[in-house]
Amino acid sequence: MKPTDTSNPDYFHKVVDCQWACPAHTDVPLYIRLIAQGKFGEAYLENRKSNVFPGILGRVCDRPCEPACRRGRVEEKPVAICRLKRVAADNRGDISEHLPKPPVAENGKKIALIGAGCASLAVANDLRPMGYSVTIFEALPTTGGLMRTNIPRFRLPPEVLDEEIDCILDTGVDLKLNHPIESMKALLDSKEFDAVFVGTGAPRGKNLEIPGRYDSERIHIGIEWLESVAFEHIETIGERVLIIGVGNTAMDCCRTSLRLGAKDVKVMARKPRGFFKASDWELEDAEEENVEILVNHSPKSFVIEDGKLTGMVFELMEYRVDDNGRIDRGTVVGETVIPCDDVILAIGQDNAFPWIERDIGIEFDEWDCPVVDEKTMMCDRDGVFFGGDAAFGPKNIIWAVAHGHEAAISIHRYLSGLDIENRPPRGVTLSSQKMGMHEWSYSNYYEGAERRIMPHVDLKERFKNLDIEVELGFTAEQVAKEVERCLNCDIQTVFTDKLCIECDACLDVCPVDCLTITQNGEEADLRTRLRAPAPNHEQALFVSGELPHTRRVMVKDEDLCVHCGLCAERCPTGAWDMQRSTIRLPYASDEGDPAATDTAA
Amino acid sequence: MSYIPKPKVTHPRAARNALGLTSRDYEGAVSTLCAGCGHDSVTAAIVQSVFELDVEPHKLGKMSGIGCSSKTPAYFVSQSHGFNSVHGRMPSVTTGAYAANPDLMYIGVSGDGDSLSIGVGQFVHAIRRNLNMCYIIENNGVYGLTKGQFSASADIGSKPKKGLPNQQEPIDPVSTAISLGASYVARSFSGDKEQLVPLIKGALKHPGFALVDVISPCVTFNDHEGSTKSYEHTRQFYHHVTGVDYIPPAKEIVAEYDKGSVMPVELHDGSRILLRKVDDRYDPTSRAAAFKYLREHFNAGEITTGLLYIDEQRKEMHELMGNVEVPFAELPLDSLRPASGELENILKRYR
User: Fold this and answer.
1) CATH number for A120
2) Which of A307, B69, B166, B224 stands the most exposed, by the fewest C-beta atoms within 10 Å?
3) Does residue B2 sit at the A interface (CB-CB below 8 Å)?
4) Residue B322 maps to which CATH number?
5) What is the value of pTM for the model shown?
6) What is the ipTM of this complex?
7) A550 to chain B: which residues are within 8 Å by CB?
8) Which of B9, B29, B30 is closest to A447 using CA atoms?
């Protein structure tokens, strides 16, 4: 293999698994370290820089970081990254002076953001302080989009939403509530705005066209039903409720039903466990509330007696799973009727753009989604950008925020007359953490404790009303343990081949045997010659240049390194050093006036 | 943060031996030697050897004297027996331990100062006794603990960090041991575990005195230009004559080998050592030939390494003395110690 090019910003970025997996690339190890030091405000602001809504995301993020967390490979459970984020938000103190401010001067350019959800708000967060005049059009009487209408209050209290949304609006955003955009053509033709961003989400719940579907009013579409509950249009539900589908919306529906008076809630899954769409932790929380999940039940028809919904017919399924874990279409092995009073359909959602004319230069694909460039977030019509679920179908809040940042960069470059394909690059800076003999400026002690368990409100208490937030947040003691579980993956092992005397000290001391000095070879061959098995091809091998004494190379399997720093501690020549990698992510505001410096365009 | 213990976390797919242990279970305390010390690599090689030999930790006795080298038994197999003795007296203490309980596997770790200066008399007599132990000399040519004075193994002309080059003849533990009739004599290098680990395994299994002289550079006082025991010098003049593979009793020798260059040596428990001759001219069963070869290559400035001499016929200490099979430590006191009446009878014979 060729020597690894660690100057490529992506190399060390990938080692920080959580940050790499996060769509917005939040610097997780840094904010966990700040929390450990009691600097909650700084931890909050570090989060806010990339993910804009730390208080919201600390409760309801889909946490792509956690399955990626190295700790989950070294032992069973990853660091509770998401809930530590909430710790920063809950304890942040007064940080108002560090929040975005209204611009000193307007730059005279006007942007329309359609939808007041997380994607649009992220764009406003980036562009308004730069002097852009930002108008948000929202069809509903309130802000937040699906964050407010689809996530129940017992998971995400409205105060948290309001606080984080208001700090963006307070920079002088023109918010027009109850103001649906009926025609994109009219908006564009008015030439009132220099750029338009569409952040309208995926607002249409999927329907289930089976016999009896329209014969009762007690059959609801999940996200519409949740919205009605959020606006208090619906305040009760029958005793026996069936939820069709087993995604995260289904989890919110079943738990909300329990709070509206349902006594017997069943989640009906077509497939077996392991093939559910819902996140494990959302399933856990629902099952803790005694929601029953019935597997291998495929809905067939509704049972309507005298115009009243009395139950549902399901086909009982059997599946075969092949060696690669793929499941077949299943065979029907029977049929059953399950009685119920209400049914909630939570089987997915779609984008819907009835208000965008199809003849105005915005191309739509075969699934009736707009064709959007994944890098620039712009569609085929110049000056029209998409983000969040509206761009590529349902994802999650953190993806919407990431889209918002990218769209903001594009809008800024577009309105500065620059090539939006030419994106500002990412960078990496490294700084040594060595403080002296046996002194490192990070906590390299390996905390062997298991993941802390989030305390919940008592089962009896929590069903009293919809507003009781179930998760209490970590206690100070739990925080102190959980932060130490972080392996500091941003403190990189940096190797200088010409200093190495091949004394083997680093190899001998490494607790997980991730280092090997050997003859160079191709990757497939090298992986078989390492001191510990290296079957995880998703994790890179670091290969040094030739070592001075023997022309062999130092190889490091990044997979299970616990970043304890003992290799650097035991290195007599300083060939190994522990250096913090800071990934520099570009934001619209970093560019200032790009026309002044950008010569590439 | 400051100095930390080695994290108690193991590679989830780490190899396990017949006892279900990982190599991490054979570790000891964190080393307090200088970073980069060759001795730490020897420690790691010992850990790997006893792990691969499925040694039960409580069946191991680790013995040492005084010096940097003699600190190292603290750094491996925490759950074994150990004795850190007076300077240079490790062979006597081991003799006592082995006399009382031959059921343990003994590994002595000493240095060039401990074995070739203050303890040279102990060293040579342990060889004469053919004490059944693995005797490792971590040989770096200097007294590291007292800041780098030359030891008895320093080569003529080797330069110190400060002062004049060494003028006195070195004592070579390998030729000394061969001349005294040691039955297993090897030399290796801390920076070459591929060679060192099988040599230590063979030494542990060999019934009799097994010497492994390990060039183990002192990274602080003897790793500079002009030193003949530095990492760089050792690598440059490293002369590998025999490679060894240790084959446990139950295992078949599957690989085909060329009879001229590979020589299997059977050990008493049915295990074997496969000697791979890198230099065909080398005969590790002939004392005279080994001597000649070693001297010639020493004169050429080379460091000859590998299994240099082996004699599986010599009787070890208990056999030589015709002792009972039951360890003395397990004999009841009355059979171990003659009663006063019996002593009286013996004395009567001389009256």
Assistant:
1) 3.50.50.60
2) A307
3) yes
4) 3.40.50.970
5) 0.90
6) 0.88
7) 235
8) B9
